[in-house]
Amino acid sequence: MKLLQGTVLSNTWVSPRYKHMSIHAPEIVEECKAGQFFHLKCSDSFSPLLRRPMSIYKIVKKEGEIHFLYLIKGEGTKCLANMHQGDQLNMFGPLGNGFTLQTEWHSLLIVARGVGLATMAPLIDMATKQGIATYAILSARTKGDILSADYMKECGAEVVSLTDEDRDSDVEHVRKMVENVIDSKSIDALFTCGSKRLTNMLKGISLQRKIPGQVAMEENMGCGSGMCFCCVKPFNRGGEIVNLRVCSEGPVFQLEEVMEL
Amino acid sequence: MKLLQGTVLSNTWVSPRYKHMSIHAPEIVEECKAGQFFHLKCSDSFSPLLRRPMSIYKIVKKEGEIHFLYLIKGEGTKCLANMHQGDQLNMFGPLGNGFTLQTEWHSLLIVARGVGLATMAPLIDMATKQGIATYAILSARTKGDILSADYMKECGAEVVSLTDEDRDSDVEHVRKMVENVIDSKSIDALFTCGSKRLTNMLKGISLQRKIPGQVAMEENMGCGSGMCFCCVKPFNRGGEIVNLRVCSEGPVFQLEEVMEL
Amino acid sequence: MKVSIGGVSMKNPVMPASGTFAEETAQIFDLSVLGALVTKSVTKYPRMGNRGPRIAETIAGMINAVGIQSKGSQVIRETSIPFYQQFNSPLIVSISADTADEFVDLAQELSVPGVAALEINISCPNLEDDGRSYAMDPTQTYRVVDYIRKSTQLPLYAKLTPNTNAITEVAVAAEAAGADAVVVANTMLSMVIDVETRKPKVGNIMGGLSGPCTKPVILRMVYQVYKKVGIPIIGCGGICSAEDAIEYMIAGASAVQVGTYNFVNPIGMVDIIQGMKEYAVRHRISSLSDLVGSVCVDEQTRIDKAAAY
Amino acid sequence: MKVSIGGVSMKNPVMPASGTFAEETAQIFDLSVLGALVTKSVTKYPRMGNRGPRIAETIAGMINAVGIQSKGSQVIRETSIPFYQQFNSPLIVSISADTADEFVDLAQELSVPGVAALEINISCPNLEDDGRSYAMDPTQTYRVVDYIRKSTQLPLYAKLTPNTNAITEVAVAAEAAGADAVVVANTMLSMVIDVETRKPKVGNIMGGLSGPCTKPVILRMVYQVYKKVGIPIIGCGGICSAEDAIEYMIAGASAVQVGTYNFVNPIGMVDIIQGMKEYAVRHRISSLSDLVGSVCVDEQTRIDKAAAY
Ligand SMILES: Cc1cc2nc3c(=O)[nH]c(=O)nc-3n(C[C@H](O)[C@H](O)[C@H](O)COP(=O)(O)OP(=O)(O)OC[C@H]3O[C@@H](n4cnc5c(N)ncnc54)[C@H](O)[C@@H]3O)c2cc1C
Ligand SMILES: Cc1cc2nc3c(=O)[nH]c(=O)nc-3n(C[C@H](O)[C@H](O)[C@H](O)COP(=O)(O)OP(=O)(O)OC[C@H]3O[C@@H](n4cnc5c(N)ncnc54)[C@H](O)[C@@H]3O)c2cc1C
Ligand SMILES: Cc1cc2nc3c(=O)[nH]c(=O)nc-3n(C[C@H](O)[C@H](O)[C@H](O)COP(=O)(O)O)c2cc1C
Ligand SMILES: Cc1cc2nc3c(=O)[nH]c(=O)nc-3n(C[C@H](O)[C@H](O)[C@H](O)COP(=O)(O)O)c2cc1C
Ligand code: FES
Ligand code: FES
Asked: From the CA of B104, how many Å to the nearest CA of chain D?
């Protein structure tokens, strides 16, 4: 983890609610891993005061680029959205533990929703580079919000998109699709991010079918680096309930450890 | 007084420390008078929270323009300095009482320093339009800070500039110049703004020579419109010490009422 | 939007906070849109107030040390009260005094037609208790409110100070002594120093902090007081938007006062009233009073003793 | 830049505030640059802390309700204390307990080599006084500090709460009971509610407010306490810059603690130390201690009783 000033290369609207930001930060790019995040200072003023956690969406090692894909939600992301090419972005990271891939895995199923899509894109890239096949079920409010589908395909995933507007995104429907994919593609591991209900559903399948899984979690953060215990959530670790820090013990956790959300 | 959104026409550096901003605000321009001010909201965020008082520097009735000339001092004026052409400026004003000219006056002496120069420019313009001659002694830290001299000349004043860097701006030297001008130009009234020491000196001359005078005062403000009593200063009104509101009972006061600053 | 606060009917729950509003406001918007009008605290005799500077900006707030500059009660009676009668909103006169006797005199003098209620500013330092304010202490609060209560028929709103560790006890004492509502709260005693000159930034050295920075503390006090008193609470501290006002109502306030934000946005109260209407429509709330104290809290009891961190 | 706080020599007056600093900070900068190191408050036995969310942002501040998640004193003794010994800055261990007896046990257990002083967090609700904190009350403060004092030779820093109207009396009581310094202050009890869900934004309903919004109130407390106690004051509340730290020293603090700003700027303390050096050079101050309590105030006496406004 480093504290550094990245330079904004681009910051463009990719849907009415999301922006895609690319940052030149060559000094950090080698350290970055899918599933990790940066804690970003969105403004120089005291409001908003705190940093904002943002997953790594894309790592372009050769060019020294880190990308973010973010939903404009409140004050912090509004400030991010106001940044222009050439501006300096104060970044702290990479933070947390990324996704881990076992060498014996051949095919992964990824289920993501909403802002969780951003987190999953670099996982697909990483898996493909290790010769692992990836199948992604992406869910969002509108078609416009399924932004990373193309990039994920480019990275090598086979992608299905579901949206609330098409009314095919309900949990039961997703469950059926997940079971189908597991059956037809002999999936070795499950990955998810972005939805409590999908996480709960996937955890059920993971336990039932004994397929390991990983989930990237979100929680409000203070320090982002393990010092303040502001971001803890309860997890079930070996039968015992323990409070773990999303920022430093996560954000990626084993699916089986997650408590009913 | 109105609450309105003006449109920034230009906002340019005129010296290393000062900017000149012109605003399109046709709905208000007819009401504006030299010596009055606007209370400006410099940012949309809560820091800085309060508005900033800014004298009217120039009124261009035909074009519906109000101009400000301001020193970049702290957070508020920094935010002002960051505004761009086309941005909306939230303005409250015009506020306070401007300068008043008696019909029997023929020649005025104006002594101003620092940010006080901005306040004096429209007075000269007003006097000239009423056929009154104006003589201005301008004082500042550096030659670069004597920004409005040209505009004042354009407006019709005879201008002398003094600066700390030329070491001709000390109060004693100014006093001599003032006395010279009074003697040679048969001055009817004195006007000042921007320096406590010059105001004290001028008040002395005003009393001694029985020449009426007016001074535009500054004080930290809350409401800017007479409600909160945050901006009061003590004045000597008819032998009695009274607390008067700079925003609404001023900012222009009779020189003789000013207490030793 | 209608509310009734200690017998005073208001067309909406939004009113100005004492000291941030005056006759001049009528030049900016029609005062009849307000739930009520609240004067700057008046004293019996004219007062000069503190020396300047009287205001200093802080981060997301401001400190004032105006010191109750007042024209005295007679002037208020002869000019302000008649002036405000042209508007269709009840007038609440805020009174301030150094002794309980002076409070009683003032209350009697100002219990005149045109005044709908008296707000008693017992959160300023007084002369009877070594510069402390009555509202720092439940016993003193009871004493002074009880005494004033007996001197007037008008509804009494007791304005409390946040500079106490016993805000609920003080509120309970005010209620017991017959206050018809409590205003929670006045400003927080504060200080800022200019590091270049080493001088305090307000002439009075210390002053009262107001503005958005204070909201989390005052909101907490409203929540605590609501659980202990039956009279209406008027929330006051840092309100800058309809959402802030709603937040206070959810915490337990029946009405709100807006102070510092009037300086930031001269038509702020008008915007807040409008925004509250829109919130009510959006959330299908037929009466804003349904919001009062509606905070969703489970395990209430556990929580009351819970650690701050 | 050197200071000595209750017998602990520090190379500069800047240290972290308890709970905002941990071993992880060593990955960001060399901890030896700090005046002292301060641990998160430890309890005797492991504690889970409060349920989430534990943090909510407010205007220019934040509310936390972490609830002293602690691994227990044994883990601290075996891991943290040895870990921090690699750095050339004194270690101050913050302790927290629900009873005076537990405080004494902790103090004895943690009076070990490697610990330069104990900071006693008496500003959290305890079990002996109906959920109030010791530092809300001078008598309770005296009792608990006195009791702990007798159980250890280490310097004791008493960390006070701003949620009291008697901060000076509490500080005086802590001094009388043998505290070697007071930390002014902990967080301000606060609350924020989400107006869409009507739920409090922290799981614990209420939490402690920290960050720049609190500075004017805490600075005022430092100023008041400085006039009444002889032991050093450690100022803590909203410090985000060298100027803020200097402002606290001018008000009366001998050293400062930085909390929330560590989250905003992970190398914030390093920047503050550097900025203080530059201030000293710019103002030709040979020793920062010359600043302590140097606020320029005329008519001191008049002022002490002056109105907040
Ligand atoms: C590890 C991690 C990775 C994330 N990656 C992404 C991403 O790639 N793209 C994306 O769009 N969003 C992502 N998020 C969510 C993102 O951090 C929030 O949307 C953002 O903080 C909202 O800030 P705001 O000021 O716009 O909204 P507000 O709602 O005004 O924020 C108020 C406060 O709540 C916190 N907060 C609000 N929502 C969240 C949240 N979901 N998680 C944590 N804190 C929150 C903010 O940080 C802030 O302190 C991630 C969150 C985490 C924890
Ligand atoms: C009636 C009037 C007219 C003015 N006209 C001009 C002008 O034409 N050009 C110009 O450059 N300046 C003018 N000033 C001064 C200008 O208002 C201040 O320089 C400005 O408010 C500083 O804000 P800041 O945030 O940049 O500085 P900061 O020093 O950070 O401000 C902190 C606080 O102090 C207040 N403050 C600081 N200096 C002054 C001051 N001199 N007067 C009043 N409040 C102050 C600010 O408003 C703010 O609330 C005028 C002041 C008044 C009262
Ligand atoms: C300039 C100013 C003057 C004030 N004068 C008074 C007063 O005379 N009487 C009073 O009870 N409160 C007074 N107050 C306190 C306000 O009424 C209100 O309680 C406080 O400002 C908190 O609300 P806010 O955060 O919305 O400003 C004053 C506040 C300010 C800012
Ligand atoms: C997340 C967090 C955890 C804290 N934990 C403790 C603690 O365990 N013990 C303690 O005495 N103070 C604790 N505090 C209070 C800080 O030490 C400090 O007093 C407070 O944050 C004010 O300083 P600041 O405004 O610089 O943050 C905590 C503060 C925060 C923000
Ligand atoms: S955010 Fe501080 S420990 Fe996770
Ligand atoms: S600034 Fe409010 S009365 Fe002048």
From this structure: 45
Is D28 an 8 Å CB contact of chain B?
Answer: no
**Within chain A, which residues score under 50 in pLDDT?**
none
CATH of domain A107-215: 3.40.50.80
The protein residue whose alpha carbon is closest to atom 12 in ligand 4 is D18
> Is A220 within 8 Å of chain C by CB?
no
- pLDDT given for residue C69 in this prediction: 80
Residues of A in contact with C59 (CB under 8 A): 46
List where CATH 3.40.50.80 sits in chain B: 107-215
* Contact between D21 and A221 using a beta-carbon 8 Å cutoff: no
Q: Which domain holds residue C60?
A: 3-308
Comma-separated ranges of CATH 2.40.30.10 domains in chain A: 2-95
Q: Is D291 exposed, middle or buried (0-12, 13-18, 19+ CB in 10 A)?
A: buried
SS3 sequence of chain C: CCEEECCEEECCCEEECCCCCCHHHHHCCCHHHCCCEECCCECCCCECCCCCCCEEEECCEEEECCCCCECCHHHHHHHHHHHHCCCCCCEEEEECCCCHHHHHHHHHHHCCCCCCEEEEECCCECCCCCCCEHHHCHHHHHHHHHHHHCCCCCCEEEEECCCCCCHHHHHHHHHHCCCCEEEECCCEEECCECCCCCCECCCCCCEEEECHHHHHHHHHHHHHHHCCCCCCEEEECCCCCHHHHHHHHHHCCCEEEECCHHHHCCCHHHHHHHHHHHHHHHCCCCCHHHHCCCCCCCCHHHHHCCCCC
Number of folded domains that form chain D: 1
Closest alpha carbon to A256 in A239, A231, A232: A239
Q: What ipTM was assigned to the predicted interfaces of this complex? A: 0.95
Output the pLDDT for position D309.
32
User: Model confidence over C286-308: pLDDT tens digits?
Assistant: 999 999 999 999 754 344 433 33
How distant is the alpha carbon of residue A25 from its chain centre? 20
pLDDT class of C130 with cuts at 50, 70, 90: low
- Looking at the domain that runs over A2-95, which CATH code has it been given? 2.40.30.10
Write the residue with the smallest CA distance to atom 44 of ligand 2.
Answer: B220
In the predicted structure, residue C132 carries a pLDDT above the cut 80: no
Question: Which residue, by CA, sits nearest to atom 52 of ligand 2?
Answer: B218
Instruction: Determine contact: D60 vs chain B, CB below 8 A.
Output: yes
Please give the mean pLDDT across all residues of chain D: 92
Rounded to whole angstroms, how far apart are CA atoms B190 and B206?
A: 7
Q: A67 to chain C, minimum CA–CA distance in Å?
A: 33
> Which CATH number belongs to the domain containing residue C77 in this structure?
3.20.20.70
Cα D218 to averaged position of ligand 3 atoms, centre (Å): 20
What is the per-residue pLDDT across C173-182, written as a single tens digit (0 to 9) for each? 999 999 999 9
Mean per-residue pLDDT of chain B:
93
